[in-house]
Amino acid sequence: MNGITFKYLILTLLFNILSANKVKDGNFTPIVMWHGMGDSCCFSFSLGAVKQKLEELLPGVHVVSLRIGTSEVNDVENGYFLHPDKQINMACNLIQADPLLSDGFNAIGFSQGAQFLRGLLQRCPKAHIKNLISLGGQHQGVYGLPNCGSLSHSICDYIRRLLNHAAYLEWVQKALVQATYWHDPLHEQEYKNYSTFLSDINNEITINTEYVQRLQTLDNFVLVKFDNDTIVEPRETEWFGFYKPGQSSVIQNLKESPIYTEDRLGLRKLDEDSKLHFLGVIGNHLQFEWGWFQENILDSYLKN
Ligand SMILES: *[C@@H]1O[C@H](CO)[C@@H](O)[C@H](O)[C@H]1NC(C)=O
Ligand SMILES: *[C@@H]1O[C@H](CO)[C@@H](O)[C@H](O)[C@H]1NC(C)=O
Questions:
Q1: From the alpha carbon of 280, which atom of ligand 2 is closest?
Q2: 107 in a domain, yes or no?
Q3: Per the domain annotation, does 270 fall within a domain?
Q4: Position 14 pLDDT exceeds 80
Q5: Which one, of 84, 270, 46, lies nearest residue 180 by Cα?
Q6: Is 4Fe-4S one of the keywords (predicted)?
């Protein structure tokens, strides 16, 4: 091999390494997804397909669908039985361990995964979220569980009874994820005192200024509500609305609620800075068309 061929080989090699890196880095901000109740990181009929679609629409993008647990089955179980505090710690560690996420990422939360991603943002300094997309998230909790996802009927009935009658007992809060964002408007003060997750991340009792500051680091917080949602009660929680305390029919929207009027969480500031967006989409829970997603979410928030 003569000198020129050798130099040529080295140059080719260098070029390949550089271009491989370029492809790996991609031109798009990485995306982290968090699945909903009864789902897992990777089922081919749900988030597995979403990941594939995002990779197709944003060539070279790094997409991480968080698996909370040791396997997909464990991930599904943890969606019902592992306290959100622990889930958020696990997610924080996963993000910290991924060097491709260290410069920030966009995040898409599906259903309860949306309030967990917000918890992650508020609690995990390593999670530099740029645009936070909440698809059918329950930011003011739920008061009703008409569907338990993949759980059997008898277990679902048992869970419903627990939520209706004992959601704020300490052992129920520890044992059942959905109890931690159960919001009983007839017992508003009990919710504030004894919810071990939602009441905390919503600054109901005390104001955690760290939470307020972390929320301000977002470029955009996008709240998507499914107009015909029959799974989430009330569906206005997807826009931070909820039943007015003391009854369960009249809705108080975000701007009428203390969390906004007292700006307990920094949402009003976000809104005033035009970083808070309310999108409505016709359809049942998490039912959307890719055309809608592309036009309203991908083009506006994922092409940075
Ligand atoms: C909630 O906590 C406050 C302060 O500790 C207490 O005064 C109040 O009685 C509690 N309310 C309920 C319903 O437990
Ligand atoms: C879905 O919700 C929209 C907006 O509230 C409403 O106009 C429409 O009739 C609903 N569609 C169905 C099938 O319920």
A1: 4
A2: yes
A3: yes
A4: no
A5: 84
A6: no
